[in-house]
Prior knowledge:
Number of strands: 0
Number of domains: 2
Largest sheet: none
Order of helices and strands: HHHHHHHHHHHH
Distance between the termini: 67 Å
Helix content: over 70%
Amino acid sequence: xxxxxxxxxxxxxxxxxxxxxxxxxxxxxxxxxxxxxxxxxxxxxxxxxxxxxxxxxxxxxxxxxxxxxxxxxxxxxxxxxxxxxxxxxxxxxxxxxxxxxxxxxxxxxxxxxxxxxxxxxxxxxxxxxxxxxxxxxxxxxxxxxxxxxxxxxxxxxxxxxxxxxxxxxxxxxxxxxxxxxxxxxxxxxxxxxxxxxxxxxxxxxxxxxxxxxxxxxxxxxxxxxxxxxxxxxxxxxxxxxxxxxxxxxxxxxxxxxxxxxxxxxxxxxxxxxxxxxxxxxxxxxxxxxxxxxxxxxxxxxxxxxxxxxxx
Length: 311
């Protein structure tokens, strides 16, 4: 048996063993001796402990021990948590699950490449297959980060497009007599159907303010969680307005006008870029098809015409 077969069978054996161990720890794990002893001492008074969800058990008993094998600095963990929050993943185990997915992709893609190349296609284990395995390692290393970056860009784009409408609603609420905190609550409720991401962020900010955190700090956290430049500018404007005691309604009205102007400028910029972006599909797909359709019959008859002219 060659090296590729050993690697393939070893990867399959490791995957099967991991699945068996995970199933054992999830469904056939031993009971907690502390809970068993407490129930035996006072079974009438102590209510029966609820079984935790299967997802929580999997994270605690399978994913966390697997991720603990890869040490990471606290700075990298904080940076990763911020990126996941910007992508919309606020769960307590978001970093752990992401690292487990990244580790799985790092080893799974090369194993699939070897399986497809050796078993299905019958390719020899030479430099070409090794190159494909190296490319698979690279994809497994970069694919989770690229996916998170894509989710962040999509979420930030949705929040940026919806922010001018939310500002107009906030101006109406403030001019109607509501305070800034009440206006944030009302806008978050009204934006639930339009853009749930912005509504969730405003709801988190309102909870932080109700929990006793200073409003300027809660607003800065709002800008850091989303990473949207326009929202950070809005937060800076609200903090400065609150600090210097100027009118919030006037400041919001001016900022809302500038946001509408900026949104129109972005739309004009996208329209101006459309003509340049269409050049590449035209050159690669449309023009070759037109040339084949228009010049194909002439090229077919050209040898006959040249032969007749030569005679």
